[in-house]
Amino acid sequence: MPSTARRIILELFEKQEQWPTDELISEVERRHAEEGGVKGNQAPRLVVSKALGYLQEDGKVSNVSYGYWKRAATDETEIESDIAAATSTIPPTLEEDEPVADKVVGEGEESVYVYFNPNDRELASHKGRILWECKIGCTSTSDVVARIRGQGAKTALSHPPVIGLIIKTHDCAALEKALKASLRLTDAAVADSLGSEWFMTSPERIEKWFAAFQQAVSYLNQDEKLA
Question: Contact 167/210 with Cβ under 8 angstroms?
Fold first, then answer.
């Protein structure tokens, strides 16, 4: 899966800043086999190319010259955070104020999540608004709480964050990209936010989008051609 290749590539770039494409493909394939992964239907080169494309669009790697990839110098902190969340195998100790998801939908071992400051939802309610500032992210592990904690949400926000929705999926990077692109088409991005992952929306609205998105994907997967 491109999402698995993406995680392994992030780990490899942590050890070496620049990789030749062929060497990177071989190393990803080797690491995948070491972790007990099985061969898929797609060629390793195609899977790694997709993963590199996602990472390049996210600004995490760059194609410095033909056949060579380099880690983005400005993205070191986020890469380390992704690796720490993706490779952690020790279950965290839950605290009394640990965020718990309001709702979980979908299927898969990866997740796209929506969380927010409860004060923002309360303010929106007082003003009669149905949308408020929500952060959208993804993780290739099953532990969304650890991923959010790793971002410093508990110290950055005045109250423990509310995880309004978790969408389970087999390719969180692709689903997150589709969701954020849809939100940007509606000018939902919070213009003055410190990051690019905050949107004026709600967990309920994202859940409805996901249901419609599944229907659209199902339509594209139809075997019969429309007359």
Answer: yes
Sign of CA dihedral 56, 17, 145, 194: negative
Is residue 125 located within the same domain as residue 211?
yes
Whether residue 142 sits in one domain with residue 80? no
pTM of the model: 0.55
Q: What is the CATH number of the domain that holds 65?
A: 1.10.10.10
With contact defined as beta carbons under 8 Å apart, do 139 and 83 qualify? no
CA distance 205 to 131: 9
What digits encode the pLDDT tens for the residues 26-75?
888 888 888 877 676 677 777 787 787 777 777 788 776 667 788 876 44
Return d(Cα 200, Cα 215) in angstroms, integer. 24
Q: Which domain holds residue 200?
A: 104-220
Residue 167 three-state SS = strand
The answer to whether residues 163 and 211 belong to one domain is yes
| Cα three-residue angle 144-150-154, rounded to 5 degrees | 90
Contacts of 155 (CB under 8 A, 6+ apart): none
Q: How many domains would you assign to the chain?
A: 2
